[in-house]
Specification:
The structure is a single chain. About 35% of the residues lie in helices and about 20% in strands. By secondary structure, it is an alpha+beta fold. The strands form 2 sheets. The protein has a 3-stranded antiparallel beta sheet with strand order 1-2-3. It has a two-stranded antiparallel ribbon with strand order 4-5. The protein starts with 7 loop residues before the first helix and ends with a helix.
Length: about 170
Amino acid sequence: GKIVSWNPAAERVFGWTVEEAVGKEMVMILPKKAQSKFKKWLSRHAGEGSFWGERMEQTAVKKNGTIFLIEISIGKWIGKDGEYYVGIVQDITKRKEIERELRQNKERFQLLIEGFDTNHFFYIHDTKGDFTYVSPSVENILGYSPEEFEGHYTKYLTENPINKEAEKHT
C-alpha cells in the first residue's frame, strides 16, 4: 500500500511532490472517511489478479485539503523486482459538473416543452426529416397523439405555398 512512484501529473493533480508522496500510504490521496471503503475495495480485488476493467468513483483530497472527485482504476503489475499495484486516476470533477448541468437542462427543457399551451407544439426531427419527438400538446392542436404523429415531416404539410418554403428551408 506504499507509493513507490509518483509522476508529474500526480504532482499537478494532488499537489504533493515526488519526495513527499513516495513511501507514504497510497490512501493519503483519500479523505479519512473514504480510506476504509477503498481499502476494502482493493483487498476484495487484490486476490483476483488484474482488475483493470473495474473503475471506482471516489472522493480524493489534495495536499491543500481540497476535496474533489476521481475515477480510479488499479491493476496488478508484476515486475522483475516484485508485484505492484498500478493506479490510473482521473479527476472527474468537471465531467460530473457537466453531467449534472445536462440533467438539469434536460429537466428544464422537458418542463418547457411539456408545458406548451394549446396553441403550440414542439417537435424534433432527424436530418432525414423523420420525427424523433413530438410534444403532447400536438394532440390539442392537430388531433394526433405524439405516438401517432410519426414519419417524415412532409407527410403533414398542406398545399399552402408557404410549405414549399418550409421544405426548402428544412
